[in-house]
Amino acid sequence: MKKTFRRMGSAWLVCGLVWLMAGCGTPAYVGTEIQYANPDWAPTYVPGVRYYYFPDIEAYYDLSDQEFVYLDNGQWLFSPQLPGLYAGFDLYSGFVVSLDWHVYQPWMHHQFYVSHYPRYYYRSYYPGQDYHNLRGFDENYRKPFYRGSQGLPGQNLPRGLPRNQPPAQHPVPQPSRYYGKPIGRPVRVTPQMRPPASSGQSGTGRQPRTAPKRNF
Predict the structure, then answer these.
(1) 59-62 and 51-54 as β-strands: parallel, antiparallel, unpaired?
(2) What's the pLDDT band for 184 if we cut at 50, 70, 90?
(3) Which of 122, 138, 149, 151 could form a disulfide with 155 if both were Cys (CB 3.0 to 4.6 A apart)?
(4) Lowest-confidence segment of 2-16, 31-45, 158-172 by average pLDDT
(5) How far apart are the first and last CA of the chain?
(6) Which segments within the chain are labelled E, that is strand?
(7) Residue among 170, 166, 171, 145 nearest 156 (CA)
(8) If we measure between CA atoms, which residue out of 59, 100, 96 comes closest to residue 78?
(9) Can you name the residues that pair with 59 across neighbouring β-strands?
(10) What residues contact 172, with CB distance under 8 A and at least 6 apart?
(11) What is the pLDDT of residue 15?
(12) Does pLDDT of 71 surpass 80?
């Protein structure tokens, strides 16, 4: 009888360890282990990235839920398409920021992103560079990326541009400030900005929320 209880105890111990290592059945968000389907308009995918930010319209895209997140009358709304208000924004050529792997629901910390990446900041942030060649900025590798510089040859080139065009010279960023704060630098992801321990980075669980006030 004692041997039976010992075997059962050992079995439960092994199961408990396996359960903990598996993260209770929820995929753990560790670095680049989780990857998401990338829309056809998006830049070359950086493994692990879940969110894009569009500084020019102050909106986000969630790769996991495949929907845009944008402000409307002080509320964050979620939709598979951009609203008519942004009909003039070209997703295929618009400037996009690949956000930090570790951030969760970045729109709930919008004040950081709008101050680090104000509208059209890249036009003056990279002096001597035709900003039309810029495709975006990657927070994880802390560098901008350019049309045709990633993925297949010629990918993300401006329409009508020949594929054999020589690569553009990449200038050193020009330091700049927005409301007294430095711009163009990755947002530091604090523990409060990371996903809850029980959620991982899969699944949503999000609800429309009131946008936080900007503290400039």
Answers:
(1) antiparallel
(2) confident
(3) 151
(4) 158-172
(5) 70
(6) 51-54, 59-62, 67-72, 75-79, 96-98, 134-138, 143-146, 177-178, 181-182
(7) 145
(8) 59
(9) 54
(10) none
(11) 45
(12) yes
- Tens of pLDDT along 57-70? 999 999 999 999 99
The C-alpha angle 208, 212, 216, rounded to 5 degrees, equals 155
Looking at residue 94, the DSSP 8-state letter turns out to be S
Buried b (16+ CB within 10 A) or exposed e, 119-154: eebbeebbeebeeebbbbbbbbeeebbbbbbeeeee
Backbone φ, ψ for residue 161 (5° rounding):
-85, 130
Structure tokens at 159: 């329409």
216 CB-side CA count, 13 A = 14
- How would residue 124 be classed by pLDDT, with cut points 50, 70 and 90? confident
Question: Which H or E element spans position 114?
Answer: helix 110-116
- What is the chain's mean pLDDT, rounded? 73
- 95 within 8 A of 122, measured Cβ to Cβ: yes
Question: Tens digit of pLDDT for each residue in 200-209?
Answer: 554 444 544 5
- The pTM score is 0.67
CA 159 to chain centroid, in Å, comes to: 25
155 closest CA partner among 88, 90, 92: 92
